[in-house]
Specification:
The protein has 230 residues and is an alpha/beta fold. The protein has one domain: Rossmann fold (3-Layer(aba) Sandwich), CATH 3.40.50. It is built from seven helices and ten strands. Bound molecules: adenosine-5'-triphosphate (ATP) and magnesium ion.
């Protein structure tokens, strides 16, 4: 199976005053195409840092990151931007929707960056996520749960190779969060996207193919089942 993302002995730390604080310590990981992975770990263990490295928002101190089979070692800003625009979808905890825009334009935004417009796949996302009644509404007027569903649709609109989600259910009650996360996995499977999702919910982790945990700079695989059978 094709590999979407790979970390080879990746280390990352931050300067904390005059001390260096190691966050990730020679982490190896492989994400296969279509795989869904839940990432858990204590607060401050480096989950967001790991996602930021995979999106190129931060650069590794050591080691190598491969995306879509290519080494990112020599990627400049323009190459990272192209990757994010064409192959990456992100759902942030705070959703980061574009507030002057309505729901439809938020969902179509990644397509517009690629010179495309609303298409049948966007309509399918809107149908499945129950957004049809809301398309002309400004995103500022939506509830947290509605905003989250728009954020999921926007992240999948361009059928990204890789979907990163950082505690996207953090602000929702448990049942709403689980419903949207199961839809996210179903739609990502239709799009052929690989999913890496930070979550504190073990219920959420249970319906993903794999469950990884970060602890003291190390990544442990707690559970795994076959992505093809799953
Ligand atoms: N840009 C930065 N500059 C300095 N320190 C940072 C930076 N980003 C993260 N850190 C530190 O790295 C460590 C890991 O942070 P990170 O945000 O990855 O944790 P996390 O596992 O996502 O935590 P949470 O569950 O609370 O979101 C923390 O100690 C944090 O203070
Ligand atoms: Mg975090």
């Amino acid at each position: 199976m094709a590999i979407t993302a790979q970390f080879c002995q990746v280390s990352k730390g931050f300067n904390d005053g005059d001390r260096f604080h190691a966050v990730l310590d020679r982490v190896d990981l492989t994400l296969h195409q279509g795989q869904t992975v839940a990432l858990t770990g204590p607060s401050g263990s480096g989950k967001s840092t790991l996602l930021n490295l995979m999106a190129g928002f931060e650069l590794a101190d050591q080691g190598e990151i491969l995306l879509g089979g290519q080494s990112t070692r020599h990627w400049q800003d323009a190459r990272w931007s192209a990757f994010r625009r064409l192959q990456l979808g992100v759902v942030f905890q705070q959703f980061n929707l574009l507030t002057p825009l309505n729901v439809r334009d938020n969902i179509a935004f990644p397509l517009q960056l690629a010179g495309l417009d609303w298409d049948p796949w966007c309509q399918h996302l809107s149908d499945k996520l129950g957004l049809n009644e809301l398309l002309e509404r400004s995103v500022e007027q939506l509830s947290g749960g509605q905003q989250q569903r728009v954020a999921v649709a926007r992240a999948l609109a361009h059928r990204p190779l890789l979907l990163l989600a950082d505690e996207p259910t953090g602000n929702l009650d448990q049942q709403s969060g689980l419903n949207v996360m199961s839809l996210l996995c179903e739609l990502a499977a239709e799009a052929g996207s690989t999913v890496l999702m930070v979550t504190h919910s073990s219920e959420c982790a249970a319906f993903m193919h794999s469950h990884w945990q970060l602890k003291q700079g190390q990544l442990l695989e707690l559970a795994s089942r076959d992505a093809v059978e799953g």
